[in-house]
Amino acid sequence: MASKYTRVHANKFEGVYCYESKTKLFDGKPDRCFVITFKIAGRKIWEKVGWKSKGITPKVADEFRSRRIQEIFLGAPVLTAKDRRVEAEKRNRSIGDLASLYFEAKGASLKGYRTDLNRYEKHILPLFEKRRVPDLTHPDMEELKNSMGDCADATKWNALELLRRIINYGSKCGYCPPLAFTIEMPRRDNERVEYLTPEQTSALFGVMADWPNQEACRMLKLAYFTAMRKGEIFGLQNADLDFQFGFIRLNNPKGGKSVSIPMNNAAREILLQQQAFKDERGVDSPYLFPGKGGVRRVECNAVDRIKVAAKLPASFRIFHGLRHHFAVTLANSGKFTLDVLAEMLTHKSTAMTKRYGQFLPDTLRKAGNCAMELLQPGCNG
């Protein structure tokens, strides 16, 4: 290895060598790279220090050599240049490696695991699989958004937020340095409200009446009659059901704090049917709607087939849409205030519930009539 290196000085800087670049210039001359060498237990070690264009001089290299010898004498590991590159790569992994580690660590416990994985594979992986965090720039984030074309701003927001989560996880675990800039997130329109017409509701229940997989139908009916989120239904356990006082306990819901919601008669019947179904099949699992092997379910593809069979709109998000439908129906009845709706939907505040205010008929009608009276010419004169 020493054959390509030249000692920088015959009488000074023992163990400091250099070589010239064949392609890089500095101050009009070939750039010079400094390396050091020393022996440890009869083994000759070579380590690269750096380039002259980066401020490295023979004196700096000599001081680095002295520190390395002292560190090793005090017990530091002996690392070759290759060893250092490997260690550096472990602390600066590619986005592809970070994503693999992130999804492996989070696993099925990650809410929306399948959705996040699909989102990563579709939008992030093609652009950033081999890229490393220190190389990312603001224009890269714009490229990600542009690559998603006509996707909704909320979809673009979710992709950027997932990339941010993956990088933050890697940084926290020491797999990569933190991102050097703040990702500018697009504005999301969270006001889209989905609900079914009476004809669509009849079609959905008509399909479910004859559907062979009644377990999937019971999940949808539970969402319809209680507004439970998909993840809350998948995580539901027998211990969460209080048939005596009529409550369903939601552990670790979206808001974070466990809460209870009322168990109406329709929900009670659905839950009893599912318990009986599990008992008949001899399923040994704490989850009411378990996945394969009795573990917590992460997805239910049958519900999408039910949606198609009922000819519901392609844009209708079946579980989330049924939750919206629940809220719209209650608001439209005029019998519930936004505060009560917030409690029923387990919102932490009424801020998220305000989107349903447009469906409060009596309140809005009275406000509109009052405005008309106030605006009549001469009423204030």
Protein topology:
Blueprint: E1 6-7, E2 16-26, E3 29-40, E4 43-51, H1 58-73, H2 81-90, H3 95-106, H4 113-128, H5 138-147, H6 153-173, H7 198-210, H8 214-226, H9 230-234, E5 241-242, E6 247-250, E7 259-262, H10 265-281, H11 302-309, H12 318-332, H13 338-344, H14 361-375
Antiparallel strand pairs: 1-2, 2-3, 3-4, 5-6, 6-7
Task: Please characterize this protein's 3D structure.
The protein is an alpha+beta fold and 381 residues long. The chain has 14 helices and seven strands. A four-stranded antiparallel sheet has the order 1-2-3-4. The longest helix has 21 residues, at 153-173. Helix 3 packs antiparallel against helix 4 (113-128).
Compact summary:
The protein has helices at residues 58-73, 81-90, 95-106, 113-128, 138-147, 153-173, 198-210, 214-226, 230-234, 265-281, 302-309, 318-332, 338-344, 361-375, and strands at residues 6-7, 16-26, 29-40, 43-51, 241-242, 247-250, 259-262. It has 381 residues and is α+β, with helices and mostly antiparallel strands.
